[in-house]
Design goal:
Blueprint lengths: L7 E3 L7 E8 L7 E3 L3 E8 L1 E6 L2 E4 L5 E4 L5 E6 L4 E8 L1 H5 L10 H9 L3 E2 L3 H19 L5 H22 L12 H12 L7 H7 L4 H12 L3 H18 L4 H7 L5 H12 L9
Parallel strand pairs: 1-3
Antiparallel strand pairs: 2-9, 4-7, 4-9, 5-6, 5-8, 7-10
Helix pairs in contact: 3-4, 8-9
Length: 282
């Protein structure tokens, strides 16, 4: 981990198309705000958990599925009076995006979270049991040293992604709108993410959203866990990294993500991610 930024950090790892974990925490601990280079699905089994994602707070119920897109800043807030149990699936974003044509798109369940303005999906019992069974088979496959075990695990992973996308499409109210949030702060977050190339100052944001800048900064920190400046800087760097990975020249990425010059971009990029932009290869 390089130069952890106050409030949040990059976390997790992925060295194949997916990685599955079944975790049960009984001892009290504090989770930091963090993000991943990959997409994530959390199948929540038990506990008392509020999940914070980009300024929204979701109260999870057993057997909910939580869809977290890559680069979304998030953390669970856990009451450890009861154990916190969940199955977590890390997913290679680019691999999943490759499974899309006119008939299907296995990344659609993630993409719809922005349209639906929620990251929680909740299914009828039959669909939930089917998904849970596939996760159980994936978990068992990971532990076996069977013939073509890695290939079989990948087939199960694709089966799971087909199932969850079907469940999302077939159940009208699958995307569950239970989040608590400050609408003004969510509007500011959306505006920042849609206008990263523009000059985003505290004064201009306060004027646009008719807020005292001190009140705005305080509420932003309270609702999201990090400062406006930190959030803007992080999102610009992550957007630039995505462009670099797609083959965009570093100077172009810097300008299109809101950095005034390449040297400022390079310093911020290296401080945050530990490498110069030129080291990022597509």
């Amino acid at each position: 981990m390089n130069d952890k930024m106050e409030g949040y950090e990059k976390a997790g790892y992925l060295n194949k198309h997916y990685k599955l974990f079944h975790l049960k925490d009984c001892d009290s601990r504090e989770f930091d705000y963090h993000y991943h280079d990959f997409d994530k699905i959390v199948y929540f089994l038990d506990g008392k958990v509020n999940y914070m994602i980009e300024g929204k707070k979701f109260l999870l119920e057993p057997y909910d599925f939580l869809l977290v897109n890559r680069n979304e800043i998030h953390k669970p807030m856990v009451d450890f009076s009861v154990p916190y149990e969940r199955v977590i699936l890390y997913i290679d974003h680019d691999f999943l995006s490759g499974y899309a044509n006119g008939d299907y798109n296995l990344a659609e369940c993630f993409q719809r979270t922005a349209e639906e303005k929620t990251n929680v999906v909740r299914f009828p019992a039959v669909a939930t049991r089917q998904l849970a069974d596939t996760l159980h088979r994936m978990e068992a496959s990971d532990k076996e040293n069977a013939y073509a075990g890695e290939l079989y695990g990948e087939l199960l992973f694709l089966e799971f992604m087909i199932q969850i996308n079907r469940a999302c499409k077939e159940n009208e109210f699958a995307y569950h709108h239970t989040a608590k949030y400050n609408k003004k702060i969510i509007d500011i977050l959306q505006y920042i993410n849609e206008n990263l190339p523009e000059e985003l100052t505290i004064d201009s944001l306060a004027e646009r959203f008719y807020m005292s800048k001190y009140h705005m900064m305080r509420r932003f920190k309270e609702e999201t866990g990090y400062s406006i400046h930190q959030y803007i800087s992080e999102k610009r760097i992550l957007a630039a990294k995505t462009m670099l990975l797609s083959g965009t020249p570093a100077t172009t990425a810097a300008m299109e993500c809101g950095f005034k010059d390449y040297s400022t971009f390079a310093r911020a990029f290296r401080k945050r991610l530990g490498n110069m932009p030129s080291k990022i290869k597509n």
